[in-house]
Design brief:
The chain has about 190 residues and is α+β, with helices and mostly antiparallel strands. It is built from 8 helices and 4 strands. The protein has one domain: CGI121/TPRKB (PF0523-like). Strands 2-3-1-4 form a 4-stranded antiparallel beta sheet, with helices on both faces. Helix 1 runs antiparallel to helix 5 and helix 2 packs across helix 3. The chain is globular, with a radius of gyration of 16 Å.
Length: about 190
Amino acid sequence: MELVEGVATVEDLDAFVARLGAIGDEHDVTVQAFDARYVVDRAHLRRAVALADRALARGENVARDRAVEILLYAAGTRQIDRALALGVDEGERPAVVLVDAGEPEGAASASEEGEGGDAVAAAERAAAAAVRRMDGPGRIEPAETLGAYDADRVREYFEVSDAELDAVEGTLADAVSERVALLDVEK
């Protein structure tokens, strides 16, 4: 999994999403853009990818498209309309673009040594580089955005209360991770 961080300037959302999709198609990877104000950390997205892939493998997916299924898990909801809040929108905002090729055939993990893992990593790097090179009205200016989430926005979206944080003695990232994992239980 590769992540591209930056400030997205999107004038036409459909065109921006189409460009990301074309990059994904060209490199045989999934590309999904997120509003970074909702992404608590890298583990949030890594867990969403793992759970989405498991749902797809089991035929339990809601979305036909892997990128949308990943978005659903990252959002902790099975409602596509609600999950779209975590995606990018028109205007200028912090973004994190996920690039993931999935698992190589027969491999236990994409980081495995060997041709399959190397090819996956190369495809992800090439697609991430293509995302970084995007210009014009749908571009991403490099900036550190991962982990710079808006705590109030995240708490409101994921419905995390003070009482919940106090009870679990964890961080907001822990509470979000729990929401992502609970999506499987709530099916």
